[in-house]
Amino acid sequence: MANADRIKKVAARVARTKDEGHSVAVVVSALGQTTDELIALASQVCSEPSKREFDMLLSTGEQVSIALLAMALQDLGYDAISFTGLQVGIVTDSAHTKARIISVNKNRIMRELDRGRAVIVAGFQGVDENQEITTLGRGGSDTTAVAIAAALGADVCEIYTDVDGVFTADPRIVPDARKLPVVSYDEMLEMASAGAKVLHLRAVELAKKCRVKLHVRSSFTEEEGTLVVAETQEMERQVISGVSQDKGEAKVSVLDVPDVPGIAAKLFGPLADSGINVDMIVQSVGEDGLNTISFTVPESDLKAAMQTAEKVGSELGARGVQCDPGIAKISAVGVGMRSHSGVAAKMFKALGDAGINIHMISTSEIKISCVVDAARAEEALKVVHDAFELSKVTVEEGTNQK
Amino acid sequence: MANADRIKKVAARVARTKDEGHSVAVVVSALGQTTDELIALASQVCSEPSKREFDMLLSTGEQVSIALLAMALQDLGYDAISFTGLQVGIVTDSAHTKARIISVNKNRIMRELDRGRAVIVAGFQGVDENQEITTLGRGGSDTTAVAIAAALGADVCEIYTDVDGVFTADPRIVPDARKLPVVSYDEMLEMASAGAKVLHLRAVELAKKCRVKLHVRSSFTEEEGTLVVAETQEMERQVISGVSQDKGEAKVSVLDVPDVPGIAAKLFGPLADSGINVDMIVQSVGEDGLNTISFTVPESDLKAAMQTAEKVGSELGARGVQCDPGIAKISAVGVGMRSHSGVAAKMFKALGDAGINIHMISTSEIKISCVVDAARAEEALKVVHDAFELSKVTVEEGTNQK
Fold this sequence. Notes:
2 copies of one chain form a homodimer. Chain A is of the alpha+beta class. In chain A, 36% of the residues lie in helices and 24% in strands. Among the domains of chain A are: 1-155, Carbamate kinase (3-Layer(aba) Sandwich); 249-325, ACT domain (Alpha-Beta Plaits, 2-Layer Sandwich), CATH 3.30.70.260.
């Protein structure tokens, strides 16, 4: 879709919301390829641009969007006004390219909303206390939206995405996956980290902290999406909300290390020092007093993780270090897990009945994850989705939706 | 030239100036087609964009340039920092798209210059007292440069253009035109208004007011350009500094109106009320007590001027109204005119000798303008250029240049 058409579509959507009698503040990100084009320009003039100047450059993308959206709304006959992060008082720390929001000044927005205007705010950007322009990094525009919704005490923060909402599983893999009318912040956080990348973790965390009700919905349809809200008692009746897979990790195993205190710290200390993000950790004790320690890391960290593991492994007298990049993590998430027993057993049985071998297991309060061969990931996802009957509605949605 | 290459060239120029031991503040405008592209985008979403949102949109063009230039300088190993108009305290009135600068806060720039940094400032933009982003309209970036040079007390404000400097006449028309080493502010103002559009009037006026020495020079060569400075005694030795032509006007004549007091006011009052910019006015008294009043207006205003002139003319009992769009104004400019007599006569004689008819004449303290047929404009320009021997250096340039 051409950029101008996108802007007009968004304007029409905002206009409808205004027509319904709501006050509307809109947070927008940069248009289509704008950010990529700006990054390309930067790389043509400088091999290592300073982060400050990078933010100065990138923040223009959102500024173009807000001006165009305000114009498009004016063209439809609506009063609208756009603001940069600076103008609307989005104050961040000074960590250029990945700044964190410290405060939002709601006064200017409230004044304009009270005048009946639609307020258009540039996402992804802010200023530090010296009026230096900062950008928020990944998930920045969603995070801006949540911060502003929190400051304004908005009824709901609608997040428009390219999907219809949050599903019980990725519909591209599990055709009978069902759109969830509502999930809790915690479920959303567990799903996001497990690969259901509908919404950036950071925005969900902020929404949870500030109790902002999110509505994740499609930019392309009028349908209701998924509400992300604080946990309710009704939610617990649904044992599992969704299943997800993550193929982006690799497994590293340090074989046959002596089972003495402090071994784990000796291994994971150096890994943390190297900035390697370890996800799952499993330690198995053999009969001969030797342990095998397995862990997963993002594939991009595998090489560095292997180097560290081999170095530490030889110091500890390990028999060797193995790696397996061909793995997938299958996770089942649900707040109902807390009050229902046998959830893990059901998942293991389903995988076992299908002849899918489980390499690693980890559990949290509301999530069970199993590492399986990547080649069987899609099958595993379907099997678990079926086992928990996620394509069927098992609680009254009417109750669940509020 | 590609945008990145342009930026790199400017960076190299700034680097050389730094190497010479100067503190440098640079004002930049938007890259190549950026402004046109932004305007095109706006027109796709809105038929009549609000001026405020237009400024929000257009100001991103300069912000991209400053970030890229700072990066390019950093890539060359120089410390550089970029600032938007807001950040550097360029405060304007609230007249969006044509704002006027009220004040410039030099503190931030001085602090960075004192640290040895090259300071890159976005031209063409400012903020009003409510932090609303404004743009300065035509000549905006040059005006920003002069305002900052004034605030900093800079030794010189270099203006880089696509010409080599100010010439005695347009070299495309008069091949033996000579580059002037120095001109006065007033000469520059008279030349600019007569069509030598090297530098916008507004920037020259501000430079004159603040006594900022300008150096108009080429972006493409290392050669010295033309200094624009306060008038000196030496300048008066050069009778005429340059000649110029302006074909953008049309002549309107109101024929045979009664020669009674108040006639001119009755005609030019309504023209002014219609926002028509009248340039030259000539009133000729006939023997029968009837006057013909002729005046020139920009061609774009001709239709409106004719309507007003016909309406007023019939009220005044004029015989009729004529217009002539095929005219050109030839002007000779020089501060030496004040102390030299016979300058006008010399110009009239040169045109007369060439058989070129003069339709209108107007004079100011340092300028003589003659309206001639547009078809003979180039010839007239050469004839006058020759008459004053402008291709020859008539005063020692060494004296003149300081």
